[in-house]
Amino acid sequence: MLTARIKQIKPSPTLAIDTKAKAMLAQGIDIVNFGIGEPDFDTPENIKEAAIKAIRDGFTRYTPVGGIPELKEAIVQKFKRDNSLAYKHEEIIVGCGGKHALYNLFQVLFEKGHEVIVPTPYWVSYPPMLQLADATPVIVPTPEANGFKLTPEVLKAHLTPRTKGLILNSPSNPTGSVYSREELAALAEVILAHKLLVVSDDIYEKILFDGQQFVNLAQLDPELKKLTFILNGVSKTYAMTGWRIGYLAGDATVIKAMTNLQSQSTSNPTSIAQKAAAEAISGPQDTVDRMVTEFAWRRDDILARLAKIPGVECVKPGGAFYVFPNFAHYYQKIKADKEGSYSDPLANYLLEEAHVALVAGIGFGEDKCIRFSYATSRERIATGLERIQGALDKLA
Ligand code: PMP
Ligand code: GLU
After folding, report:
1. Are residues 238 and 363 in the same domain?
2. pLDDT in tens, 41-56
3. Radius of gyration of the chain (CA)
4. Among 10, 15, 202, 322, which is best to mutate for testing ligand 2, by the most ligand atoms less than 8 A from CB?
5. What global pTM score does this model have?
6. Distance, CA of 226 to CA of 217 (rounded, Å)
7. How many angstroms separate the alpha carbon of residue 99 from the centre of ligand 2?
8. For labeling, which of 74, 129, 181, 281 is most exposed (least CB within 10 Å)?
9. Total domains present in the chain
10. How would DSSP label each residue in 279-347?
11. With 80 as the cut, is the pLDDT of residue 114 above it?
């Protein structure tokens, strides 16, 4: 009954682990949930108030398909303020979450015969979304010693006449790695020479530590801006994962095509959530700073705790709220699954034995590692790491 297209698609592993962890919680099992990537903070009050006001004002009808002018203006001003980038309203589309905007972008940009470079470790949804657009994801391993970042040499080695695009995600999910201006400039030479379309997934832009300045490719050069599509949203920055608002900026022809697609599928994102997102982006930003300070503390804490586990190594994240430690040391003590993965059985063992939910690295294209989302309290981080240590000791 099912199409070949959908048969190749598996459930998102990040959402699958969350479902499993929540089912165990519902059975009364005390799970430490390092699974899903969503801030554990509540949506700030001013944002909630904007939504409540929208409901009271009767702002409950269809809106323009690609977003209300008020929200598009807030996004335009955000790009100007934070990234020194000038966009017009027709170069912006608002979708039902960043995921939706990305899906629609891939449908519009890529098709059969197109190869798109996806550096590993990648966010779980890029390859399936590309497959759903009939394009070919070209999975490109990046050196762990280089913080799992793509280098111009590695990029060049994977280019073919069919290469159409490249996905970059900084700060990265799952590694937390951040590209510096110099690293992007080095990649830019290859990108410009081959006129690659770049998808810059900036969703963790604001969750950046150690006083770093965020930079993306579009900011480097006007020619690069023409080739770049920037994805961003309110889910992570404003603890608004359930509101489902994301946005994308880039070439007006592409945005128009995405709007057409959206007009034939979802129509507008929720009217109320759009009002809330406008307040999030243009209102006071102090809650973001507080959240980032807390995430920075937790990053240091979890790194220190991981460092005490024998054989575990971890790239130091510069942003986002993930760590992606290498657990390969323990793989000799477990059996691989049918697909040859070790990270999945180890993550399952830790869920069953230690009651700690983690996402296996295999879903991110890097089986040596396991992802922790440390968007959970300091106390739960301490408990979770103690339990993991105990369960790993039992393996020895
Ligand atoms: N990109 C990355 C790297 C992510 O981690 C997420 C989180 N789901 C998204 C995009 C999309 O987020 P959302 O759909 O909640 O805007
Ligand atoms: N991006 C988050 C994660 O990686 C949310 C889940 C998802 O959309 O995949 O856990």
Report:
1. no
2. 999 999 999 999 999 9
3. 21
4. 15
5. 0.97
6. 10
7. 9
8. 181
9. 2
10. HHHHS--HHHHHHHHHHHHHHHHHHHHHHTSTT-B-PPPSBTTEE--B-GGGGGGS---TTS-SHHHHH
11. yes
C-alpha to C-alpha distance for 347 and 174, rounded to whole angstroms:
15
Whether residues 292 and 355 share a domain: the answer is yes
Mutate to test the pocket of ligand 2, among 9, 17, 18, 38 (most ligand atoms within 8 A of CB): 38
Q: Which ligand has the shortest distance to the CA of 19?
A: 2
Give nearest CA residue, ligand 2 atom 1. Answer: 37
Ligand 1 proximity of 203 Cβ (cutoff 6 Å): yes
Distances (CA, A) of 375 to 15, 194, 366: 15, 39, 22
Beta strands in the chain (DSSP E): 32-33, 92-95, 115-119, 136-140, 163-169, 197-201, 228-233, 246-249, 322-323, 356-357, 359-360, 370-373
Tell me the β-bridge partners of 32. 356
Reply yes or no on whether the pLDDT at 236 is more than 80: yes
Residue 78 identity (one-letter amino acid) = K
Q: Could you tell me the residue range of the domain that residue 317 belongs to?
A: 4-42+286-395
Q: Is there a single domain that holds both residue 80 and residue 99?
A: yes
Judge if the beta carbon of residue 235 lies within 6 A of ligand 1.
yes
Q: Are 364 and 371 in contact (CB under 8 A)?
A: yes
Q: Is 123 in the pocket of ligand 1 (CB under 6 A)?
A: yes
Among residues of the chain, what percentage have pLDDT more than 70? 100
User: Which amino acid residue places its CA nearest to atom 5 of ligand 2?
Assistant: 37
Nearest bound ligand to the CA of residue 373: 2
